[in-house]
Design goal:
By secondary structure, the chain is α+β, with helices and mostly antiparallel strands. A hairpin with a 2-residue loop joins strand 4 and strand 5. The protein starts with a helix and ends with a strand. It is flat, with a radius of gyration of 39 Å. The strands form 2 sheets. The chain has a 4-stranded antiparallel beta sheet. The chain has a two-stranded antiparallel ribbon with strand order 1-2. The chain has a domain of about 70 residues: Alpha-Beta Plaits (2-Layer Sandwich). The protein is built from 4 helices and 6 strands.
């Protein structure tokens, strides 16, 4: 028998066998499972509001008594203690200049990167702070929209920032820029 004829017969047998196996699967409507349109999310629980406790007040200490002379006799009067109001607003965050102290010479910063999304800059800033670098972020408007820039510094020691630049360039594969610091 010819080799070409043998290959054609074997190919036909294989195709018939595959057809016998897969054609019933295609036409079997009972095996197709309908999509369950019922939600799997449980209903919202019924929440009962909890009563708020009364505002806890510090126990009032008795007022100190002060003796005052009245017509040659001493009388005892209650004096209210001076109560200082609690600060209503938190102290403002210090700017990078305040962190470094008063500046008498030029200050320098390293601009590490500029990000479109602030959370990317914040994540790297937190990592750098964890590694001991003073770093901060600043949002600026550019021609391509707002960008968040990540800086290390400021420092009046330019040499230490140049050393940090080499380390950060190698580790993060960036080309940081050494710039004069402007607190604005």
């Amino acid at each position: 028998m010819n080799d070409g004829l043998k290959q054609r017969i074997i190919g036909a047998v294989v195709l018939v066998a595959l057809g016998i196996l897969f054609i019933p699967v295609l036409f079997d409507k009972e095996r197709i499972e309908p999509v369950d349109r019922a939600t799997q999310i449980p209903p919202e629980p019924e929440l009962q509001p909890l009563p708020l406790p009364e505002a806890a007040t510090a126990p009032r200490t008795p007022a100190p008594q002060v003796e005052q002379p009245i017509d040659g006799e001493f009388a005892i009067e209650d004096v209210e203690p001076a109560v200082e109001p609690a600060p209503s607003t938190p102290a403002p965050k210090p700017t990078p200049v305040e962190l470094e102290g008063p500046q008498t010479a030029d200050a320098w910063v390293l601009q590490i990167a500029s990000y479109k999304f602030e959370n990317h800059a914040s994540a790297l800033r937190d990592e750098l702070i964890g590694r001991g670098y003073k770093s901060f972020i600043k949002t600026v408007d550019t021609s391509s929209g707002p960008r968040t820039r990540l800086y290390v510094g400021p420092s009046i020691d330019k040499a230490s920032l140049e050393q940090a630049k080499r380390e950060l360039d190698n580790e993060y594969r960036v080309e940081a820029m050494l710039l004069k610091f402007s607190p604005k």
